[in-house]
Amino acid sequence: MRKLLIATHNPGKIREYQTLLADLPLLVTSLRAEGIVDDVEETGETFAANARLKARAYAHQSGLWTWADDSGLEVDALDGRPGVYSARYAGPSATDRDRYQKVLAELQQYPERPRSARFWCVVAIASPDDEIFTTEASVEGEIIALARGEHGFGYDPIFYLPDLGKTMAELPAEIKNQISHRGKASAAAKALLQRRFQA
């Protein structure tokens, strides 16, 4: 069976993708499982640029079809921050809690500004011979003052979905995967993969 490499060291993302891609006719593998420890520096100025950069680099290194994403949180009151720096917003050794606490601390400086925000995700899939395609999706929400929920990872505990009355971290995985930025971008990417390998 053909392998599909998921290009992340983030265990939360790996778990989500194993669930999202479980019905593909591909063996989903990870950087760790393939013995790849290198990090690809995310030098792009957009989510799409970083996703393509990682997909190409790991596809060349592994010789496998590679699925990479770049995703993050844009907060309107913070002029779109943390944006492409979401994963490293509070420093290289920061925890998820450190990152979302930094966002909450910064928002306290702007109590009059709206709390609107969105998660973005761009998925890039690359072959070892440089075939590449991308999909993207976003989900709108608000930033709440106190973290809630035990599911998910990253900024999920402070990202509130008004239509559902819950934070992303309060949703079970099967619901989150249907409505999240990563879930929607992944569904589109999965459909492209299915067409590609059925052709």
Write structural notes for this entry.
With 199 residues, the protein is an alpha/beta fold. It has a single domain (3-198), classed as Alpha-Beta Complex (Maf protein). Helix content is 32%, strand content 24%. The chain has a seven-stranded mixed β-sheet. Helix 4 crosses helix 5 (181-198).
Radius of gyration computed on alpha carbons: 17 Å
Beta percentage is 15-25%
Helix proportion of residues, in percent?
25-40%
Shape: globular
Strand line-up of the largest beta sheet: 2-1-3-4-5-6-7
Oligomeric state: single chain
Summarize the main sheet: 7 strands, mixed
Give the key terms.
199 residues; Maf protein; alpha/beta; single chain
List the helices and strands and how they pair.
Elements: E1 3-6, H1 11-20, E2 27-30, H2 47-62, E3 65-75, H3 96-107, E4 116-126, E5 132-143, E6 159-161, E7 166-167, H4 173-179, H5 181-198
Parallel strand pairs: 1-2, 1-3
Antiparallel strand pairs: 3-4, 4-5, 5-6, 6-7
Helix pairs in contact: 4-5
Summarize the structure.
The protein has 199 residues and is α/β, with parallel strands linked by helices. Helices cover 32% and strands 24% of the residues. The chain has a single domain, classed as Alpha-Beta Complex (Maf protein), CATH 3.90.950.
